[in-house]
Design a protein that fits this description.
Residues 4-122 form the Poly A polymerase head domain. The protein is an alpha+beta fold. Helix content is 53%, strand content 10%. The protein has helices at 8-15, 31-36, 84-88, 112-117, 133-145, 154-166, 174-185, 190-199, 202-206, 208-214, 221-230, 235-243, 249-258, 263-280, 287-296, 303-319, 328-340, 344-349, 354-373, and strands at residues 2-6, 23-27, 40-41, 48-50, 57-60, 62-66, 74-78, 99-100, 106-107, 120-121, 151-152. It is elongated and about 85 Å long. The chain starts with a strand and ends with a helix.
Length: 375
């Protein structure tokens, strides 16, 4: 029984990056041996165990065989006879197919270290094509390591094109696809993720609406996403920036539903598609238009949603090199503060209720916003 550190922990150590999660591989052991040592099994069909003291995951060396479509269409075989090399060859990229033993000795049967040095993302074997999720994973790694100069190897890009054309991407579940999209959007250069998917034909399959946007000569979709990442904006704002150039709310709704994006991401994307023009032209809005916009965002109960909307619109403007100061942001914040400052209690004390109270409150806010506009 031999234990190895594998995958990302080895890769990132060699790159000089911090290592947080460690994957452990056990060669030459059985399920019964692992349980006798106190390891707790995870699930019934997958040979992964929890260490009795550290809580880290240890997987038995295994091989896999394609048995169906999509990410989950595999049959796994784990036994003491499976070698380290047999386990590593089933992995996606050579840079993820390295191992270290307990003494720190490096095992690199597929030349991952050389590809690290050459800054290449290269598949380990033709079996890469059996898992369509790897197209998204490679694009995500390209986004993560773009600042270090990494690129997708030509032969791997060609294999990704073949997968994209095969129909296998349609077999991916919304949950697995979104998990990769979410992680990729939170990288430092998420626009690289979108560009790699586009280059291999996967974007046209997964997000045809966004792919069509990038066909436009004046598209700033990738620049807006890059700007949002540069400002370290949260996931839902980055998703909204990716979708912001859509002119059809139905397209945005379709993308939201296709990947089952979280509710916060869905809502903000729709608001940005619908209302971004009003934000960019906020300085010219009438008091009535300001009231309508603020009510759409429910600023009286959900002030953060307006802040997220402003952040997305500001990232768009800056990605175009327009008005880096973006005075519309403070102007809308000021309008929201003025509207919220209207004395509701005083109106209630006058005996107003129901529809009469609502109309009086709206009129008072209109008056306050008209005065705000004249400052």
């Amino acid at each position: 029984m031999q234990i190895y550190k594998v995958g990302g922990a080895v890769r990132d150590r060699l790159l000089g990056r911090s290592v947080s999660d460690i994957d452990w591989l056990v060669v030459g052991a059985t399920v019964d041996q692992m349980q006798a040592l106190g390891y707790r099994p995870v699930g019934a069909d997958f040979p992964v165990f929890i260490h009795p003291r550290t809580g880290e995951e240890y997987a038995l060396a295994r091989t896999e065989r394609k048995s169906g479509r999509g990410y989950g269409g595999f049959t796994f075989h784990a036994s003491p006879d499976v070698t380290l090399e047999e386990d590593l060859i089933r992995r996606d990229l050579t840079i993820n197919a390295m191992a270290e033993d307990e003494l720190g000795n490096l095992y690199d049967p597929y030349h991952g270290k050389k590809d690290l040095e050459q800054r290449l993302l290269r598949h380990v074997s033709p079996a890469f094509a059996e898992d369509p999720l790897r197209v998204l994973r490679v694009a995500r790694f390209a986004a993560r390591y773009a600042p270090l100069g990494f690129r997708v190897a030509d032969e791997t890009r060609e294999l990704m094109r073949r997968i994209s054309a095969s129909g296998e991407l349609q077999a991916l579940t919304a949950e697995r696809s979104w998990k990769e999209i979410e992680r990729a959007l939170m990288e430092d250069q998420p626009q690289v993720f979108i560009q790699v998917l586009r280059d291999c034909g996967a974007l046209k399959v997964l997000m045809p609406e966004v792919d069509a946007l990038l066909d436009k000569q004046q598209s700033h979709t990738l620049q807006a996403l890059e700007q949002a990442a540069g400002e370290q904006l949260p996931l839902h704002v980055r998703w909204a920036c990716l979708l912001h150039e859509l002119t059809d709310l139905d397209q945005a709704k379709a993308l939201n539903q296709r990947f089952k994006a979280p509710r916060e991401s869905q809502e903000l994307a729709l608001l940005v598609v619908e209302c971004q023009t009003l934000c960019h032209g906020a300085l010219e809005l009438s008091a009535a238009e300001l009231i309508e916009l603020l009510q759409k965002f429910d600023v009286y109960r959900r002030p953060q949603r307006l802040e997220d909307f402003i952040a997305a619109c500001q990232a768009q403007a800056r990605s175009r090199g327009e008005n880096q100061a973006y005075p519309q942001a403070d102007y809308l914040r000021g309008a929201a503060a003025v509207a919220k400052a209207v004395d509701v209690k005083g109106l209630v004390e006058k005996g107003l209720t129901g529809q009469a109270l609502g109309e009086a409150l709206k009129e008072a806010r209109l008056t306050a916003l008209e005065a705000y506009r004249q400052r």
